[in-house]
Automatic annotation (TrEMBL):
Entry binding sites for Zn(2+): 131, 174, 176, 179
Catalytic activity: Hydrolysis of terminal non-reducing beta-D-galactose residues in beta-D-galactosides
Gene3D superfamilies with a match to the protein in the record: 3.40.50.880, Glycosidases
Organism in which the protein naturally occurs: Cellulomonas pakistanensis
Domain of life, per lineage: Bacteria
Enzyme nomenclature, EC number: 3.2.1.23
Domain Glycoside hydrolase family 42 N-terminal: 30-404
Keyword entries, A-Z: Glycosidase, Hydrolase, Metal-binding, Zinc
GO cellular component terms given for this protein: beta-galactosidase complex
Domain annotation Beta-galactosidase trimerisation: ranges: 416-629
Family indicated by similarity: Belongs to the glycosyl hydrolase 42 family.
Active-site residues, as the UniProt record annotates them: 166 (proton donor), 326 (nucleophile)
Protein name, as recorded: Beta-galactosidase
Length: 698
């Protein structure tokens, strides 16, 4: 195996994407023929032919087959599976198999199983059960990854490598003694000295000043946390443990990747889980050759959530396409209630993925598992193997459409001029802050802001706070609790060249160590926003304070959760509170920033409370309208338009109807629907039924 890698801190330089080489949108999914007799394989591939399946992900949980004992390797079954896929003309995304431990590993090396947040040492079981600090796990995982890469590196069917599976699926972190020791190593690298660490953590509070590195314990229910993961006495140490846990997972991933690289230069990925709080995907992104993720939305009536998550994945590699690695063709199996996907929804959501940057549409799973916890999870083929099920008919129909479109959208980019900033540090920090309102949640807030942009038809990039903002006219930064580095000045540059910046409550509160700025709130953002926060009130979610916007026809909406009483210092008041002792005080402001070198003026909005969606929509649409960025169907609920620019320079608009009733709208442009050859003429009435999709080549 390759040498163990050092535990790094911080975010490395961004790296360009390298995607698998395919002739069309990769179509297929996670296939586990090792669970079935070979007679079933024949039926499977006949079905795959009918559905125009091009790609299978193999070996995701194969470790116990390929290495049944420490010194024993057996690739007999995997050889047959990979070769059969090749013989059938399929391309293969080949996994290292390290998504779950083999029982013998935990028996031989008890250190490999995790200690959880409550301090319980786990025994063997389930799948997300390995400690990333364990030398045995790291050595064995890199070892099997290297063996598989060596064996299949030159196999013509293999186009990509898949490491692990859904890292951190049960919360990610381990709290064992090995992790405690590695955490101390990480802290030494980050801070250098205990004096610097004590200063960063404000350790003189509650007599926490450390005098020896070995005195530091991981923050858990047994140490700094007094109610749960979000309730900590020392935010600094908990924040750093989040960062360490991400870097620890990345190190283990990189050790497998290095083992692969010794034999193969094919692109490497691991499948992410969207907006997953425990692990910072922005820290991880530079180590990926291409991003991929599993789409299992918790609700079926929030298309903006899925759209924004696709945008997040695209933003991990600077706008390059990503792979949709998993989705269900029918039902999930991990929730208490698992509704079936309604007719047309799998097709609609698959095209939505392509619309937002996916170069693949892959399912979990190709055939339903016969036993264990995912035997009721949906599949392209159910346990009967029938081809006349609704699920299979829909999958086959989608396969025909993707085949028809061919390579047109491969490598296409999204021409977004609006950015939504996401920051895991702010996410962690704001949700473990002891005030003013613990019920404020980062992701729901982000999604509500994102929904306002989605409803307005804006093309949005979801990017880290370190991203280059020079190409955006509108930049939104909700709950920017932590302001790091030169971010405030870069936001100022957006406004200085005539752009619009939107931020708001609980922003600009803490520095990168989660210490309060010794300045008026919103700290480094105050001058840019032209406002300071005099006081901050908070209330239960049921309590609302009316917020009235100025101007004829402007809305009055509810504000909830947090109520910052704003004092304009150059900004103009756009809305005021209507109740409580601060009735009449500013709730929303807009600062006009003079343009640089005589250029157009910029605007900076500050929202002092959690506005109802109608209020967010008013602000967002005002900002977008200023830059002519409102979509052509902004006033048609549920009608989405996403634009891709192909490698040939053509514009392709994907129009997706998420509503439940037909709508008739004027065509926004001339073009040809690549799915039906129907021609659109600008302005002519077009009727779209529920779940209908148009791929309009302009």
């Amino acid at each position: 195996m390759t040498d163990a890698q050092p535990l790094r801190t911080g975010v490395p330089e961004r790296t360009p994407a390298r995607l698998p080489r395919t002739d069309s949108i990769a179509y297929g999914g996670d296939y586990n023929p090792e669970q079935w007799g070979k007679d079933v394989w024949d039926a499977d591939y006949a079905a795959f032919d009918a559905a125009r399946i091009t790609t299978v992900t193999l070996g995701v949980f194969s470790w116990s087959l390929t290495q049944p004992a420490e010194e024993t390797f057996d690739f007999t079954v995997l050889d047959e599976i990979v070769q059969r896929a090749a013989d059938e003309g399929r391309q293969v995304c080949l996994a290292t198999g390290t998504g779950a431990l083999s029982p013998w590993i935990a028996h031989a090396y008890p250190e490999v199983t995790r200690v959880d947040f409550e301090g319980r040492k786990h025994r063997y079981g389930q799948r997300h059960n390995a400690c990333w600090s364990s030398p045995a796990f790291r050595r064995l995982a890199a070892g099997i990854a290297g063996r598989i890469a060596e064996r299949y590196a030159d196999h013509p069917a293999v186009i990509a490598w898949h490491i692990g599976n859904e890292y951190g699926g049960d919360g990610g972190a381990c709290y064992c003694d090995l992790c405690a020791a590695e955490f101390r190593v990480w802290l030494r690298a980050r801070y250098g000295t205990l004096d610097a660490l004590n200063e960063a953590w404000n350790a003189t509070f509650w007599s926490h000043r450390f005098t020896d590195w070995d005195e530091i314990e991981p923050p858990s229910a047994l140490t700094e946390h007094w109610k749960g993961r979000g309730y900590t006495a020392f935010q600094g140490i908990t924040l750093d443990y989040y960062r360490f846990s991400t870097d620890n997972a990345i190190r283990q991933f990189c050790e497998e990747k290095a083992a692969i690289r010794a034999h193969s230069d094919l692109p490497v990925t691991t499948n992410f889980m969207g907006f997953f709080q425990p692990l910072d995907y922005h820290r991880w992104a530079p180590h990926l050759d291409f991003a991929s993720w599993d789409n299992y939305p918790p609700r079926s009536d929030e298309p903006w959530r899925t759209a924004l998550t696709h945008d997040l994945m695209r933003g991990l590699k600077d706008g390059a396409p990503f792979w949709l690695m998993e989705q269900t063709p029918t039902v999930t199996a991990s929730r208490d209630v698992n509704p079936v996907r309604r007719p047309g929804i799998v097709r609609l959501w698959s095209w939505q993925a392509v619309a937002h940057g996916a170069d693949s549409v892959l399912f979990f799973q190709m055939r339903a598992s016969r036993g264990a916890c995912e035997m009721t999870h949906g599949a392209v083929l159910d346990h009967s193997g029938r081809l006349d099920t609704r699920a299979f008919r829909e999958v086959a129909g989608l396969g025909a459409e993707l085949s028809r479109v061919g390579d047109v959208l491969l490598g296409a980019r999204t021409p977004a001029r609006t950015a939504l900033l996401v920051d895991w540090d702010s996410w962690w920090a704001v949700e473990m802050a002891d005030g003013p309102n613990r019920l404020v949640r980062y992701l729901p807030t982000l999604l509500e802001w994102g929904r306002a942009f989605w409803d307005a038809g804006a093309q949005v990039d979801v990017v880290p706070v370190t991203a280059d903002l020079s190409g955006y006219d509108v930049v939104a930064a909700p709950l920017l609790h932590m302001v790091k580095g030169d971010l405030a000045s870069r936001l100022g540059e957006v406004a200085g060249r005539g752009g619009t910046v939107l931020t708001g409550y609980l922003s600009g509160r803490v520095d990168e160590d989660d210490r309060r700025f010794l300045a008026d709130v919103p700290g480094p953002l105050a001058g840019l926003a032209g406002v300071r926060v005099a006081e901050t009130d908070a209330a239960e979610p049921a309590v609302a304070n009316p917020v009235a916007f100025a101007g004829a026809g402007a809305p009055t909406v509810d504000g909830r959760m947090v109520f910052e009483i704003l004092v304009p210092e150059g900004a103009e008041v756009m809305a005021r509170y209507g109740a409580d002792f601060y009735a009449g005080e500013p709730a929303v402001t807009r600062n006009v920033v003079p343009g640089a070198d005589g250029g157009p003026e910029g605007h900076v909005w500050y929202l002092g409370t959690e506005l109802a969606q109608a209020g967010l929509a008013h602000v967002v649409r005002t900002a977008l309208g200023r830059h002519d960025l409102l979509g052509p169907y902004a006033d048609v609920p549920g009608l989405e338009l996403a634009t891709r620019v192909t490698t040939a320079g053509d514009r392709v608009d994907l129009v997706l109807h998420h509503g439940t009733e037909p709508v008739t709208v004027p065509a926004h442009a001339e073009g040809v629907d690549l799915l039906t050859d129907a021609r659109w003429t600008r302005g002519e009435p077009i009727t779209l039924g529920p779940a209908e999709v148009v791929v309009l080549r302009r």
